[in-house]
Q: What sequence folds into this?
């Protein structure tokens, strides 16, 4: 029997810098601080310069585009990144036909899947009609996302109108929105700590969907 013990354990550290040149030449020193107990001769350094703030992510585009699946929350968590990737690539002139076809296919599938979690009143919840009622936060999220996805796939405007009416009915006389049901996906956890944070989230969602709002004690649609 021969016991082989490595001299150390491989460890990788990353240092990043964002440099805005504004048309001038800019230099920035990079300091390499090695641990005292580094194995002699094992240090390696790599560097790259990318002229795009999302350059690193774009090198791994397959990790940004996903086929939506799962419950109403999981489905939306995978649905929306496809929209953001399409928006960015389209505006920067980097959208290829291959990525467009792939991502719009994912959006179409996710859209059809999400409709299965819609209640008859136009709201959405994690498990659809298995839940007593729709979730206000998730419904606002779905409404906003569908409004943004409309740039790339077909979205039924009648369904969107029904959802908007349901959200409006959840607004109380003081302008705040009434919370209904809860959601479970921590990746989407936001705006459920109280009426004000929930209302702020819904107002932001409506603005992103292209609506205008007036601000009252909380908000007025």
A:
């Amino acid at each position: 029997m021969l016991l082989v013990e490595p001299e150390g354990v491989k460890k990788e550290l990353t240092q990043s810098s964002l440099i805005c040149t504004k048309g001038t030449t800019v230099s920035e020193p990079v300091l390499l601080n090695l641990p005292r107990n580094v194995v002699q001769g094992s240090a390696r350094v790599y560097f790259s310069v990318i002229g795009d703030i999302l350059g690193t992510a774009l090198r791994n585009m397959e990790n940004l585009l996903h086929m939506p699946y799962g419950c109403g929350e999981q489905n939306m968590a995978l649905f929306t990144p496809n929209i953001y990737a399409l928006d960015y690539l389209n505006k920067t002139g980097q959208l290829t036909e291959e990525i467009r076809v792939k991502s719009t296919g994912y959006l179409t599938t996710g859209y059809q899947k999400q409709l299965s979690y819609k209640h008859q009143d136009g709201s959405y919840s994690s498990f659809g009609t298995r839940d007593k009622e729709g979730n206000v936060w998730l419904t606002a999220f779905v409404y906003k996302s569908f409004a943004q996805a409309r740039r790339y796939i077909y979205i039924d405007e009648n369904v969107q109108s029904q959802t908007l009416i349901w959200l409006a009915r959840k607004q109380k006389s003081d302008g705040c929105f009434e919370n209904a049901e809860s959601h479970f996906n921590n990746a989407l956890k936001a705006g459920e700590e109280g009426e004000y944070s929930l209302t702020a989230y819904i107002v932001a969602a409506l603005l992103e969907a292209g609506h205008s709002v007036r601000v009252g004690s909380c908000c007025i649609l």
